[in-house]
Write a structure and sequence with these properties.
This protein has a single domain, classed as Up-down Bundle (Glycerol uptake facilitator protein). α3 runs antiparallel to α8, α7 runs antiparallel to α8 and α9 runs antiparallel to α11. β1 and β2 form a beta hairpin. It is built from eleven helices and two strands, in the order ααββααααααααα. It starts with 11 loop residues before the first helix and ends in a 9-residue tail after the last helix. A two-stranded antiparallel sheet has the order 1-2. The chain is globular. It is mainly α. The longest helix has 32 residues.
Length: 297
């Protein structure tokens, strides 16, 4: 049974050739198609972040059989990270299954460049358009979530969690954020790589779940997710002082737009490119495609 008509997942060498052809196709798309699909991807990743923020907010309170006794359980750190990671997989599932352009996954376009099928200018053009679209989609979703008041749910637990998540992300050193970004996108691109070998929607979802859950649970840094996590917290802290006073929140002075862009987003983005393009894309190109290189017409 041929690779084209089979039902089994593609083998790694076949995945590499498919990744190369997908890279060529992505690089040849029109500006507006790429941009609109990138805005969607930013929104999809933000929705995964909304889900993760909500599901890991606060403690769990349960009532006894008599409906009178109450107990509060604080979920262990590792389990909280696990369920948050599982919730966050929604973002990449929406990107892959619904069809959208995500900067971190598009780092695999480097395989088509190394095979001589597209120019470096086309790679950078695609990355630039997609990154901008992802930023707009993420921050618009953050704005909508803020305006909806969703962060006040759970007696404010969701908003408190959002602020705590954001505050933790602006305290990394540049090197630490860079390396966390490398580790993150190695897993993201491995997830995308495996979806290229999938034959069905269920296969694609199964390929996504564990790598994405792993990066979130481990605390690695994803540039596009952070385009939601930090802005939504900044919107809350800057435009709803009543929420802060009601919950006696003291916000770190480091949680600023400048630190979002330069202390977190910049090093994480660089790390994401290294982790996705170099550690996954270039490695698999070297193993499976380097003998196929041709000069771009």
């Amino acid at each position: 049974m041929s690779a084209e008509t089979g039902v089994d997942a593609l083998l790694p060498a076949e995945i590499a050739r498919r990744a190369e052809s997908i890279g060529v196709k992505k690089a040849g798309m029109s500006f507006w198609n790429v941009f609109v699909l990138a805005v969607l991807a930013g929104a999809f990743i933000a929705l995964g972040a909304v889900f993760a923020t909500t599901i890991t907010a606060g403690s769990f309170t349960t009532r006894g059989a008599d409906n009178l006794s109450v107990s509060t359980t604080v979920i262990p750190y590792g389990f909280t990270r696990l369920i948050g990671g599982l919730a966050f997989t929604l973002g990449l599932i929406l990107v892959v299954v619904s069809g959208a352009e995500l900067f971190t996954g598009n780092n695999l376009i480097v395989m088509a460049f190394m095979a001589g099928k597209i120019s470096l200018a086309k790679v950078l053009e695609n990355w630039g358009i997609v990154y901008l679209g992802n930023f707009i989609g993420s921050i618009l979703t953050a704005g909508l979530v803020f305006l909806s008041g969703q962060y006040t749910f759970g007696s404010g637990a969701v908003g408190i969690n959002a602020i705590n998540i954001a505050a933790s992300k602006v305290h990394f050193t540049f090197l630490q954020a860079l390396i966390l970004g490398i580790l993150c996108n190695a897993l993201v691109c491995l997830a995308v790589w495996m979806t290229y070998g999938a034959r069905s929607t269920i296969d694609k979802i199964a390929a996504i779940i564990l790598p994405i859950t792993a990066f979130v649970a481990a605390g690695f840094e994803h540039s596009i997710a952070n385009m939601y996590y930090l802005p939504v917290a900044l919107f809350i802290t800057q435009f709803d002082p009543t929420f802060l006073s009601e919950h006696a929140l003291k916000v770190s002075g480091d949680l600023t737009w400048g630190n979002f862009l330069f202390a977190n987003l910049l090093p994480v983005t660089i790390g994401n490119v290294i982790g996705g393009a170099a550690l996954v894309g270039l490695v698999y190109w070297f193993v499976y495609l380097r003998g196929d290189k041709q000069t771009e017409p």
